[in-house]
Amino acid sequence: MNPPTLLRKIMRATAGLTASAGVLLCPSPADHGAAPVFADVSVDAGGLAEARLGAGAFAPDPAVVDAGPAAAGSVGDDDPRDALATVTTLSAVADAMIAEARPTTNFGREAGREMTEGMKVGADDRADKLPGIVRSLVKFDVSRIPSHATIIRARMSLYLVYWRDSSRHPTHRVTAYRVAGTWTETGVTWNNQPPFAEASGYFDVPSSDRQDVFRPYPDWDVTEVVQDWVTGDVPNHGLMLRGNETITMRGFATREGGAEYSPLLEIEYTLEAPTTTPTRTPTRPVSPTPRRTETPRPTATATRTATPTPTATRTRTPTATATDIPATPVAYLPIALTGAEVGVDEPTAQPVAPGATPTAASPKPTAAAAADITWVRRAPLSMRRGGVGVAADDAGRVYAVGGSTSGGPPLYEPSFSAAVERYDPDTFGWQRLADLGLSRDSVAVAVAGGRVFAVGGLTSARIGGGSSYSKVEEYRAADDEWVAVAGLPTSLGAAGAVGGPDGKVYVFGGIQYVFNIQSPLFPERRDLDTVFVYDPARNAWTRRAPMPRPIVSPAVAVARNGRIYVLDGSDNYEYDPRTDLWATRRGLPTARTGLGAAGAPDGLVYAAGGFDADSKALAIVEAYDPARDTWTRRADMLSARGGITLVAGKGSIFAVDGSTMEEGILP
Question: CA 597 → CA 336, 630, 647, distances in Å?
Answer without folding.
Answer: 57, 16, 7
